[in-house]
Amino acid sequence: MTVLTYNKADEFLSKVEHFLMKNEALNNLPLGISYRLANEGNHYQGEPFLGYKQRNDGEIHYALMRTPPHNWILAVEQDLSYEDVESFLTYIDENHLPFPGLIGSKQSVERIAERWKEKTGSPYQIKMEQKVFRLDEVEDIPISNGDLQIAQPEHQEIATKWLNLFGEEAGEPTLSESPEDTIKRMIQNQSLRLWVVDGEPVSMANATRPTKNGITLGPVYTPNEHKRKGYASSLVAKLSQSLLNEGYSFTSLYTDLNNPTSNKIYQRIGYKSIGDSIVVQFEERG
């Protein structure tokens, strides 16, 4: 199996951007990270892996990337065959690449995880089953009392607390930077939005990873004491409309299939499912 790899994100994008743009919203994660690397440089805990497998006809079969310490990201146009899976894992093994986990289309990732377990004896956990949603137009929904506001430096403490709670509840892997630094960067970039009621923040959402035509929302978090009051749906609806007004053609987000309430909320706002995604985590080989 031949995998072409690149040290620079702009070189990587020059080869794979057209492939990923065939389904821009579904590939928001690899596209958004690649653009960030190209525009802002590497802020991760090690050199990124940026590569793709080329078919015999010269077309891209799939793209593969990792930004340490995060999981591998697999972007496919068609799910991998068992032969593809075998060559994929042989490449990982022969090049002694760390393989902590993988995110991508459900069928391909599950095939890879099962075969990796057979080959290495390394068990895996399904950390999250997700749907990828896309919104092109916001539906009219009831809006709760409160206002959409851009997070300010004085919100650093509460937003950091919420990001920690989000990570605990979602079982998110280790961040490449501290939660404090993550929130500080979001505030500096003016990407973090709050729903504020009588001067008190009650929910937050971040607009992240812009691509050519879209942008992704995440994380979206409301603490327990403010849930079931319509704050998150109001925040997401107003933020989504604001981003469309800025010129984005669509917004996208990931949802946890184990949280049917949030899935229904997003669909009422106008988000439509465009694909499945799964996150698996591997245990270290003994």
TrEMBL record:
Domain of life, source organism: Bacteria
Coiled coil: none
Classification via Gene3D superfamilies: 3.40.630.30
Pfam families per record: FR47
PROSITE patterns registered for this protein in UniProt: GNAT (PS51186)
Name this polypeptide is given: N-acetyltransferase domain-containing protein
Domain spans labelled N-acetyltransferase: 148-286
